[in-house]
Structures
1.
Amino acid sequence: MRKFFVRFLWTVLVLVVLFAAVAFTAIAKGWIGYMPPVEDLQNPIDRFATQVYSADGKIMGTWNYNKENRICVDFSQLSPSLVQALIATEDVRFYDHSGIDFYALGRAVVKRGILGQVNAGGGSTITQQLAKQLYSGTAHSVTERMLQKPIEWVIAVQLERNYTKDEIIALYLNYFDFLHNAVGIKTAANTYFGKEPRNLTVTESAMLIGLCKNPSYYNPVRNPERCRERRNVVLMQMMKAGFLTQAQYDQYSAEPLKLNFHVADHKDGIATYFREFLRLYMTMEKPRRADYPSWNMVKFYQDSVNWATDPLCGWCHKNTKKDGTPYNVYADGLKVFTTIDSRMQEYAEKAVRDHVVKFLQPAFDRENRGKKTAPFSGKLTSSQVNQILMRSVRQSERYRVMKADGASEADIRKAFRTPTEMTVFTYHGEIDTTMTPLDSIRYYKSFLRTGFMSMSPVDGAVKAYVGGMDFIHFKYDMCMEGRRQVGSTIKPFLYSLAMENGFSPCDMAPNVQQTYIVAGQRWTPRNASRRRYGQMVTLKWGLAQSNNWISAYLMSKLNPQAFVDLLHEYGVNNPDIHPSMALCLGPCDISVAEMVSAYTAFVNHGIRCAPLFVTKIEDNEGNVIARFQPRMNEVISAESANKMLYMLKGVVDGGTAGRLRFRYNMKGEIGGKTGTTNNNSDAWFIGVTPELVSGVWVGGDDRDIHFDSMRMGQGATMALPIWAYYMRSVFADTDLGYSESAVFDLPKDYNPCGAVADSVEVDGIDEIYE
């Protein structure tokens, strides 16, 4: 009987072993359950966020799927205490097994399974936990979980074959979701402590590893005391494992959490408008006419030009990975190195806030106080304002949703006039209030908008980019996407055409109002000033004073179609610009980015630089997979460019931009041009220095939203100060290398008008209106 019992036990053992061997072979072959392909095991984490870097090496933000802002870090970038905390807490025999710790497994079966000791510890190794995170879904029952275990064992062994122990630890920490959008150890270290993983202290490492047990339960933000207790458990485990002494444990366990908490969000940080523009620009698909509504053919044209001429536009679809698939900025872990300088970007954003938030917006609110048509011009009737608001209602998301649900126009109008609780934006933070949706549309339209860009005239590198005041609440980008009438800032292009056709800055023109007959139509331009009326004045004086009569005179001597062609050479991608006499006063719509790029030709000897946004792109292994070079085209001759610089300097030294000297105390060589459109709807200033070209637009969300007074609404008041604040900050930061004493690259003592002609041009006035 005894022999029979022994044979029976051996038979059962052999059958169990055989069954296990067959089962594990079947799992490994993929016959039972899910066994990931070898390629997946060799690259188990297929989602790494793309990092966007500034030119001075700062991470500006990431692009990712579903807030999985995971950034890969190598084992060498981990704090030693972080690795020690993980091993001590999760798998103290990690370096002694090959994926499965049979000793720990047996202990868990006996103590937890048989004796019911809940705190006896688990049998899963770090490698098994990684296998579970990567390839196992959430189990809904004990049975389902038991079936998952053998599969995880096999995957763990395969992972051990493909990776070193250090690499497995890095994979584990790179993959884990630490809560609060902190996916992966790099983002977690930054979110909770504002640090890199290699700089984490012992207590900080212990806290993060403590979250691996259950990040929601031990949430350090909502449950700080519970999190602290869990951290101390990790510290105790580190002491038991020999990584800490008793004295160190006593010291560390007594410390508070000391969080430096900040949730990582793609809307946070600097250059939010730029990062969003760049994301859309790089992921753009080849433009197809059918994808654009009939009213937006200008956008189709502009996208088509960019796709054909700029390698960065649609880069993800123009280039493929080794496997032949397009690049994915949300998952491929790319590094995009931009031309933006984080310091200059901060100066630009501060300049915009200081002028618009502290000065312009309060002044605009005061002007609108008590005005029935506010924030719209007082020149409009209530009926006209209502028409504009109803157009905005039909463009709103609320309207589209209600319309899709079958609501009638009467129901929609009633809903938009029904008071509703809502949270609205202010410059001092969001506030809860009650207003009708229609009033909320009117409220948001009361905020002034702005666009700003600064770039190098030598290579086109964009140093600062501001698309608006607040990306979360005003997402429309007024730097690259928005286009508004440019007014007098178009005049330097007209004058450059004149220089190309034999004119000189010292040529004389009659400063009188004239009527021109064009295609049988009479056109009589107006001018804001009658200074020196009836006299013969130089073209330099005409540009400095932004005199419309001189511009009209020049246009009458030139070919309007040639002017349109030249605008396109300057990089203005608007096919709807029609040749006409009135074009000399800037009625066409152009973006801030196009204007700044065009003005680089004056500083760069007639060669215009297209905006350069990115210098290179690296893959997730650090290999450079793309480099981008400046894109240039010759627009005017070097001699014409010299003449234009001479005249643009006159705008600052004795013209409409003179307040740069007498009010903002700007020194050095500066050229520029102010611009103000009809009714003060758009205010512009483009300024050039030997090393930077920068442009500003300020206006309302709608052309009928503006200052009614010329004193407040002109470009010299609304836009120019932003440029001045920005440049003063740039010059003050000596680390940037920009000098106020830099000079334009002109021939020595360059003066095409001569000393006598130049001396009679200075008016010495305190204020000039366009």
2.
Amino acid sequence: MDRWERAHGHIGAAAPSWLTFEVHRPYLDGADSALTTVHARGSLLAARRFERRQPTAPRFGMTMPGSYRSLLDGEARLAGYRVRDPLGLAADLASPTWRRMAEAYEHRADLDDVDRAGLAQWLIAVCLPDSVLEVLPADLSESDCADPVLAIAQWSRASALFAIEGLSDRARAAYSPLVDNPAPTVAHAQAVAAWGYLVTRHAADDSGTPELFARAEEVRKGLDLTDFEHALLHARLLLRRVMHAERQSAFDEAWQLLAEAADVLEPPVDADGEALTVEMRRRIIDRRVDIAVRRGDRAGESASIAEGLALDPYDVKIRMQAAQATERLGDNEKALAEYLDAARLGPYGTAFALLAAVRCAKALGHDEFARVLAERAYRTAPRSARTREALTELSDGPLAEMISLPAEHPYEHNWHYRMYAAYFNLGESRSPGLYASLPTLAYEFAEAGAPPEVNWQRLMPPAFRANLVRESGLSEFAVTHPADLPAHLRTPAWDQLCAWVARFPTADVERQYLTAVVLFRLGFGKLVLDLLPPRPVAELTTPAQLRLWHWRDVVRYVGSVGSAGVAEPTASFEIADHPACPTHLRFVIAVFAVVFHARETKSLEAASLWRDKAQASLDELLAGEEHSPFEKAMMESRFYRSVTYVPFLRRDRDQLAREMDRAEELARSVPASTRYEEFLARENLRACLESRSKEAFGFGEHEKGRRLVEEVLTIDPYEPKTHMELAEVLLAEGREREAGESYLRTARLGPIGTARGFALAGECFDRAGLPVLAEDCFVQALRVDPHAVSAARGWARVASGALAGVAAEYARDLEAWGAARRSR
């Protein structure tokens, strides 16, 4: 599938990366796309001008500011296209056009004036203004600029400086040779008009701009150009004057100038002329909409928007203008759909579009959806006070506090890092969720040199860290070994971990175990297996060795869950029967074995055998004096919660209920006295009630199951999996809209289940008769997982806006691609 092949594996901040790629493709790899917006095609024309050695021929009049590329990069998160100059793009990602221009840039010192000027214009068009200064490192003199080609070069340098610095002294100096005493060249005419526009828009005093515009018009009239070129330059000058009229509040004059600019355009004579005309018409329409609003001209605004949408259907600006017009008419539902269309077509204005969508969603009573949109706005522009304020207003206390915290490093602005910093670099996780700081807990015990006798039960899936990095867009954290993390991303704790890993082969067994636990909790399960090659259990002689190799077996098993063949923890089973195995370790392994056989082999005989071993170990532990009352209560509660798989397999409902009652009784009464014990007690109660809810639903006790799920959420309202379980309950009750909102919470609090949460929310909202919400959820599912065929089908089913045709095509292509893969 060409549509997303290069974007696959990258998760944009707001829209699917493949969509951002296509709409803005010329900036990224120099090629065109059917979805490319008008202004992005400027580099295509500039490249043709370069090949034909036509630096003085007209190019697009609109160039994007220097921040545009960073916005594009930040929102699309296509790390491979993150470049500072043309040479930074890998050859296999670059189009033939980009490779040709990169080659010219590499040999810029050998270029003549014609090619240097043409290359500079292309660099401006692809929004690489810093590279222009490498091609044109110094200002030319006024006399040099009498040469039309050198004048184009100087204008390119001046444009680049303004894109980087605004109205700085260097930018003013670069414009000076072209503006002060303009020679009769195209570059001088355009530079004088451009300077008048920049002064009007950005300077405190614009009183001298009418003289600049008159000077530019005088220069234009004296040029030896074709009728088409004269008309184009004339229209551009008139468009520049609109800004000055607007600043004077002369809106009728501005409207007349726009009408004149449209009238003077001559019919194009070739494809390049057609591209220039389309771009000019698009710019005129853009300003016509703005001025119509200022004049209160609803009819003029509506007509201009319709023309703009027909001319440039995938441009964020015209989509925003359409949505704003709709909202002013009071149609919040349609405005919401249009703002969401605009947000998908960013990056310029994405966060603004999402904030406007938040406003409409709130007005329609879609509060949970509004919260999701506010979080996307924040993720898109985390440094913006407006996105932070909007999200804070819609968040509960703990999350609002998390958002308001200052950031010392750039990556600390990132939503996912703030939530789960411990998984990234052992930073401080700010999420109030129960499992956000598991790596930190493991590290603290490793630092203290003593593992806890009773540990927490949650084993995060191996893909958690990988998904977290992907969804955050913080690609520098995507390492498979702690030592590979760049120095500027490390915390002191991470440096200490690297030291432990470096000394792992010679460390004692206790240190190896503590280090292996931290590595697994961080998502480095494969590294644990690499550091601990397989070893016969018969060679193990000490309790510490047995514990370490049992942990290796757990890591191996967890890493295989979900794959074609689950790795049976046979080493652990041998360890449990080893004469040196301590009672507590035997107990842990026996309970683990009951769960394994119940889930994986479905063998009642094996599960019963291991239950008996677990019971014998528990009896011994409870009779001894080595463990505290807290530890004994925790062990017994966990025992009953796990071994009830045996009566479950026997379909013995009475025994199952009795033993789960005992597990819950212990979980609720466990005598915690320290902060860590309180955490373990809370985690155990949450797990126990989760199991009890499944028990209730399994026996058809819907109301009881619902109450238990709701209680689980009171213990940890930030656990995505539980919100998904609540959504399933609500869906069973026929409450589609509420189920959709619960699925949305799953997606918000990911990464576990993010794409699935969005896709299921889309299905629920579709059933509830909310197609606008449904479409957005399906698009967000595809943002996270572009392979999600059910989401693609859902999008094609409900799409009705700007991207309806794209949605249908995407679903067809994805299904065809999948069928071709299956046939192979």
